[in-house]
Amino acid sequence: MFGSWWKLGMDATLLAMESQQVIGLRLAMLAVGDAAAQAEAQRMVSEKIIAANEAALLIAMGGSTARVVAGYRRKVRSNVRRLSKRSL
User: Fold this and answer.
1) Can you tell me the distance from the alpha carbon of 80 to that of 85, in angstroms, rounded to the nearest whole number?
2) C-alpha to C-alpha distance for 46 and 24, rounded to whole angstroms
3) For 10-31, how does the pLDDT look when each residue is reduced to its tens digit (9 = 90+)?
4) How far apart are CA 42 and CA 29, in angstroms?
């Protein structure tokens, strides 16, 4: 039992750190203010709405908190990879 709590705690901590990286990359992009920044702002809002709906549906269907965190981490890591490529 302790192992599952430990993993959830570590995943939540990593999610927080990865999210901060995405926030930094997006702020840098939004500071430029070009068409790509506008598209990123719209994408950011739509991604958040979709992710929240998916998490709510997962919980409603009996999913665990660990699965919700794992889903968010997957999306955040994808954003880190995508945004990191743009900043190079």
Assistant:
1) 9
2) 19
3) 999 999 999 999 999 999 999 9
4) 13
